[in-house]
Amino acid sequence: xxxxxxxxxxxxxxxKDAKFPIISIEHMMESFPMGVLHVCTYEDAEIKISDAxxxxxxxxxxxxxxxxxxxxxxxxxxxx
Length: 80
Known about the structure:
The chain has helices spanning 3-14, 25-31, 49-55, 66-75, and strands at residues 39-42, 45-48. The chain is mainly α. A hairpin with a 2-residue loop joins strand 1 and strand 2. The radius of gyration is 11 Å and the shape is globular.
């Protein structure tokens, strides 16, 4: 599995109980089980929700499903 695929899978798994659509950055942070402290890691790659919230823009929302959010989040990390 590629690094990007694994991180996207972890993001989707973490959002399994989230209510969609996610309408804002704040709503996104609240949707992760550990909130802003949530971290997805695979090999040497890491996506911290605390960092991702600074990379995303309000115009990126709403997001209708976990895969769309995972793809958007990983797109901001060049090493994935």
